[in-house]
Structure formats: C-alpha cells, structure tokens
Write a structure and sequence with these properties.
The complex is a heterodimer of chains A (about 270) and B (about 300). Chain A has about 270 residues and is an alpha/beta fold. Chain A folds into 2 domains: about 190 residues, 3-Layer(aba) Sandwich (Rossmann fold); about 70 residues, no CATH class. In chain A, strand 1 and strand 2 form a beta hairpin. The longest helix of chain A has 18 residues. In chain A, the strands form 2 sheets. Chain A has a 6-stranded mixed sheet, with helices on both faces. In chain A, strands 2-1-4 form a 3-stranded antiparallel sheet, covered by helices on one side. Chain A is globular, with a radius of gyration of 19 Å. Chain A has 9 helices and 9 strands. Chain B has 2 domains: about 60 residues; about 200 residues, MetI-like fold, CATH 1.10.3720.10. The chains are: A alpha/beta (about 270), B mainly alpha (about 300). The interface between A and B is medium-sized, with 27 and 19 residues.
C-alpha cells in the first residue's frame, strides 16, 4: 500500500521536470533539410516513467538527445530541471544510458562505474560508497572486480545503468537500452528497472520500439511518427505503479497496447 | 607447438635452397681454380669447394655461423685468455672493448637503436596528440610527416650527420636521430588512428558527464589507443634498427654493425657482411618480440581480449 500511495503524493507536489514547447530540429543534409523534430510540446513531471515509441526516423532518440544537450534544437524552447539542457548537463542533472553498454574494457566493473565520479571530482571514499550503492541497486554486488568481458550482455547493460545512476542525478534518460538484448533478458531487466524506479523515484525518459516494453514500463507513453518527427499522441497509463510481470496478460494491459498500436498506425498511415 | 612442423619445414626448405644457391653462385671460382691448377672437378669435389671458399659470393649457413662464433664467443675467450694475470676488471674491459668483437658492434648499434626508438616514439606520440586535437596541425603537419618518409634515408643521413656535427653533436646521438626519423612515422600514423578510435557513442557519453578535453584524452582516447600504439611500436623498433645501421654506414669510424658491413664491402669479405647481417636480423627479431611480449602483458592487464 505504501508504495502505491507514495508516488501519488510526489506527483502532486512536484511540477514539470522536463518541458518542451514548439521544439523543432532540422538537420541540413545534401538531400535537403530533414525535419527530425517538428513543433514538439511535451511536459514530463517528477517521478514519471515516460516512454517514447515510434518507427525509426520519428525523432524519439533525437528528442532524448536534445534533452541531454547532445543535439541543438533549431527552434522552440526546452527546459530540464528548470534549466537549459546545457546547464543541466553541466550540473550533471541526468544520467544517460546508451543502446550499447559502452563499458571500458580496461576498467573493472567498479572502475567503469567510478568513471563519471572521477570526472566529476568526487572524493575517493565517497566514490567507493556510491559504487557499492548502485551495484546493489542493479543486483551486481560481488562483480566489482570483474572485467566487462567476463559479464553477459544483460549484466553489462545493468552495469551501464549503474554507471548512469552513480552520481545520483534525478533524471535518467535511456536510449533503447535493451534493444540489443534477447527477449528473456529483456523481460528480466524491465522488471528490475521498475523495481529500481520505485526505489529511487527517478524521472525516466525511455526510448523503445517495443510496444509491450513501453506499456509495461511507463506511466506515460509518447507516440511519435516520422517525416516530420512529431508527437501524435500522449497516453497516460491507467495501470498501477506496482506491476508484476503477469500484468501483461491483463485486459487493461492488452487494451493499452492496442491503443498504442492504433496510435502508431494513425501516425504512419501515409507510409503503408 | 602446433606450428612446429610447418615452421621447421619452411626453415629446412630455406636452408636447402641456400646451400643449392651457394653451389650455383660459387661454382665459377671453383672451376677457375681447377682450370689454373689443371685438374678436373668431380661433382662432390665441386660441392665441397663451393661450400668452403674463403671469400664466397654466397657463404653457406654453417660458414656464417662459424664466422659469427669466431667473431663473438671465440674472440672473447681469446682476449680473456691473453690478458691472464691482469686484474679482473681490466680483463673484463679488454673483452668488452675488443674492436673485432661483433658483440661490441651489436651493442653500439643497439644503443643507438634504443635511443632513437625512444626519441621517435616520443615525437610520434606528441605529434599525434597535436594532430588529433588541433585542426590546423592536422592540416599542416600530416603532409610533412608523409613527405618526410618519401626522401631516401640514405641520401639524408650524411646531411643530418654533417649538420649535427657542425653544431657540435656527435657520437651516439646523430645515429639515434636517424633512427628516430624512421621510427616516428609509424607511431604518428598508428597513434592518430588509435586516439581517434573511440566511437561517437563513447564521446557522447563523455559529453553527458561534462568531461573536459583532457579528461577525454587521459581516460578514453589514450587507453583506447594502446593496441594501435603497440602495432606501431613493432614496426617502429625495426625501422629504428635500420636507421642506426644506415647511420653507421655514414659514420663508420665509431663501429657498429653498419660499419662492419661497410668494412666487409671494402675488402670483399662476404663472411663479415653476412655475419653482421645475420646478427642485425637476430637483433631485430629480438626487439620486435620484446615489444610483442610487452604488448601481450599490457593488453592482458588492461583487459583487452583478442
């Protein structure tokens, strides 16, 4: 009961963590301009788990990269924790998880997780403690001194999530983090990610092209469509925050998945 | 030792060809001697003669091995015995300073090689760091680096030595500089590639942590370049040895394997040339395998698995 009540109070207390209005991004290419994002308006509140779903080229990754200050919008405004993305990046307001784990082969798991902490100049003793905490969060305690090649793909991605969490940013941006993993591992990691989210109460932005993944994880699903990249629908999930794996066979789940699929088809109809 | 049989086969074939060529190349001299002496040569006498001439066009492997032993171990023993009764330190220094000993020449070449290798590697790494971090350097330095290697080193070596002599630098350093001139190139090329090897995702990742340029360099670029560096070092160390030998062909008065080759050339002493050549080749093999060993140890410790 506690777990179910608590998030609701935080949701009402806090306002928008991420907000974008009229956000557009056009890439100039040799074949003319490509509208990666066009007039995107979106608000993400504290503690929400927001999935971005859509076919490739819909700008879901680009949007995440704009939030992370890895791409510069050509028009519109965006704020992250009340700051510009650049300021947010400087203040280390978010952790970013890429599709590949990208662990350094010459560093141990602990060494890899320490990397951002070293860069941020956090004292050694504190580093050690933070590493222990996040390793515990992703269930990798005991693997500190292993090298990345000694771990499975799923474990490597968990280590990379731990690394993104290590400096305790309250926003976690994830760009298809489980896209390269097989279904069984993916299910397992999805479950663990929800558990982690419940424990830490982070605000999570999650890019995926798997409908079940988006429905299972999110409190809010942002459906996007390509050419130009835009938001076609924002679906608030009616599912409770506590979600066992078998919720995926419930009628609510299936209905929500159906809605997402319809939304994707609507934004895509001119292509098929 | 799965490779043992193939390696042995190749070696045996090379040796067989070598002995065969020795007969072909040295037979004229054997026939000349026979004509002048007015006797007939049977085939076995021909073979025996071509494999044991004093100044053969092509000495046989056993002749070269004999010559190497004569000018290294045997020479040292001789010096040692001759200085009997003298203090120990003097005896050792007599052996070490024997101008006829090939070991001393090899050491002279090796020291110039190593010094040049260190210079060249250092210069190569510095240039690569500059090229990777500075657009102007990338556009201006790289063409010169490539041009530098198109000039035949044999033509350049005497000039380097004359110029350095004019500013009062002589001895080991000029040779080392020629070595460095040859060995910096592979290091620049390899390190530029290595420092640029981190992919876009890894660089983005560093950006999300607001890492400074120097942090990206020390924590990502430099460690990523290690495998590339070692590949370059293997080529570089062999090039260094060639550089030192070329230097010794120009300043032969100080000795060294290059000087021995030159000396052999003057007197038509093919055995001297070949023994210096073989020692140089062995030195190169040892140096390259030492770099290879360092590579294996470093990569293993850094967790790079092949």
């Amino acid at each position: 009961m506690m777990a179910q009540n608590q998030p609701d109070t935080t949701r009402t207390q806090a306002g928008a963590v991420i907000s974008a209005s009229n956000l557009s991004l056009t890439f100039e290419t040799n074949d003319g301009p490509v509208h990666a994002l066009k007039d995107v308006d979106l608000t993400i509140n504290k503690g929400e788990f927001v999935s971005f779903i859509g076919p490739s080229g819909c700008g879901k990754t680009t949007f995440l990269r704009v939030l992370a200050d890895l791409e510069q919008p050509t028009d519109g405004t965006v704020s992250v924790n009340g700051m510009t993305p650049r300021e947010a990046r400087r203040k280390r307001a978010y952790g970013f998880v890429f599709q590949a784990a990208g662990l350094y082969p010459w560093r141990t798991i602990a060494g890899n997780i320490k990397l951002p902490l070293e860069i941020m100049g956090i004292p050694k003793a504190e580093q050690k403690q933070l590493v222990e905490e996040v390793l515990d969060l992703v269930h990798l305690s005991g693997f500190e001194n292993k090298f990345p090649w000694q771990l499975s793909g799923g474990m490597q991605q968990r280590a990379s999530i731990a690394r993104a969490l290590s400096f305790q940013a309250d926003i976690l941006l994830m760009d298809e983090p489980f896209g390269a993993l097989d279904e069984i591992v993916r299910d397992h990691l999805n479950e663990q990610l929800l558990e982690l989210w419940a424990k830490t109460n982070k605000t999570i932005g999650f890019v995926t092209h798997s409908i079940p993944e988006a429905v299972y994880l999110s409190t809010k699903i942002v459906v996007m469509s390509p050419r130009p990249g835009r938001v076609t629908e924002v679906i608030e999930s009616p599912l409770p925050r506590e979600r066992p794996l078998d919720i995926r066979e419930s009628p609510e789940f299936l209905e929500l998945a159906h809605r997402v699929r319809e939304g994707l088809r609507a934004g895509h109809e001119d292509d098929v | 030792m799965r490779n043992f049989v193939p390696i042995l086969t190749v070696t045996l074939v090379i040796f067989a060809l070598w002995y065969a060529f020795a007969i072909v190349l040295n037979k004229n001299w054997a026939y000349d001697k026979a004509t002048r002496g007015g006797y007939e040569l049977s085939f076995s006498e021909l073979v025996a003669d071509t494999w044991s001439q004093k100044k053969p066009r092509l000495p046989t492997p056993d002749q070269v091995a004999g010559e190497i032993w004569k000018s290294t171990g045997a020479a040292a023993v001789k010096k040692w015995n001759r200085s009997e009764g003298k203090p120990l330190f003097e005896r050792i220094s007599k052996v070490l300073n024997d101008k006829r000993n090939l070991i001393r020449h090899a050491w002279l070449t090796l020291s110039a090689t190593l010094l040049g290798f260190i210079f060249g590697t250092g210069l190569g790494i510095l240039l690569a760091v500059g090229i990777v971090h500075n657009r102007a350097m990338n556009n201006s330095v790289m063409p010169w680096v490539i041009t530098s290697q198109t000039i035949p080193i044999l033509a350049l070596a005497p000039m380097i030595i004359v110029v350095l002599n004019a500013v009062g630098v002589s001895g080991l350093v000029p040779k080392a500089i020629i070595s460095a001139y040859l060995s910096f190139f592979p290091v620049v090329v390899g390190m530029v590639k290595g420092l640029r090897s981190p992919d876009a995702m890894q660089l983005d990742q560093m950006r999300t942590w607001f890492a400074s340029k120097s942090q990206v360099f020390w924590k990502l670029r430099l460690p990523s370049s290690v495998p590339y560096l070692f590949t370059s070092l293997k080529i570089g160390v062999a090039a260094s040895l060639v550089g030192a030998i070329v230097g010794e062909l120009t300043i032969s008065q100080n000795g060294g394997l290059g000087a021995r080759m030159l000396q052999g050339n003057y007197y038509g002493a093919t055995l001297t040339i070949w023994s210096a050549l073989i020692v140089a080749a062995a030195l190169a093999a040892i140096l390259v395998s030492l770099v290879g060993l360092a590579e294996r140890i470093t990569k293993k410790r850094m967790g790079f698995v092949s």
